[in-house]
Predict the 3D structure of the following.
Amino acid sequence: MILARLSRAVREQNWFAVVLEFVIVIAGVVIGFQMNAWNEARLERRQEAEYLRQIDSELEAVMDELDFVGDAIDAYFNWITIFLEGVENGDPDRAQQGSWGLNAITSVEIVNLEPAALREMISAGELTIIRDRELRSALASIPQLQSSSQSSLEQMAADLSPIAFEISGHFEARLEDVADMSQRGFSEQTLQFDFDEVSQNDALLRRLNYAALQNRFQAAHFVRYRTEIDAIRAQVRAEIEERGF
C-alpha cells in the first residue's frame, strides 16, 4: 500500500508526498528496531536477575560445605592430637580415645567451588549479560579458583597416600562397628592397635606428625578459599540489592 502511494506520488511528481512516505517508512523501521532492542534488554535483565539469584544461592551452599569440611578437618586434627598426647604420656586409654585420627588424619576433602549456574553461563557465552564489570570479572575468576584448589588438594592427597597406606598397617578395624553408618557406628574402640608397638615406632610417629601438619595446611587452604568465595558472594548480593532483583 505504501509502495503504491509512493509510486503514484512519483508519477505525479508530488515530492512532498514522496518525502513524507519515506519518512513514514524509515520511522517505522527505527521504531521496530527500538521495540526489539527494548524487548531484548528486558529479557536480558530478567535472565541476569535469574542467574544472579541462582549463583547467590549456590555460593551460599558452597560456603556451607566449606564450613562443614572445615569442621571435619578440625575434628581429624583433634583426634590425632589426643592420640599423640596419649602416646607421649604413655597413656593407652587416652591414645584409644583419639584412635579414629589414625584413619582420618590422612583424609583430603574436596569441595567444588564453581556454581552450576555459573558454569552454564560461561558454557553458553552469556557471562557478558552481567552488567557490572567488576562483578563479571569476579565471577569469571571462580573457575580458576576451582582449578587451583583442585590441583593443590590432589597434590596433598598424593603426598599423604603412602602415609595412609603405612598407617593402615598398624591398626585393625572392628567392622561390626561400622556396618550400619546411618547410626554413625564408629566409636573409640572401632580401631584397635598395639599401643606398645606404635608408641615405640618413631618413624610412624613422625609420619603421623607430618600428616597432622598437612591437615593444618588443608584447613588453611579452605579458610583462604572460603574468604574469597565470601567476597564474591558479597558482590553478587550487593548487585541484587542495588538492581532490585
About this structure: The beta strands are 172-173, 191-192.
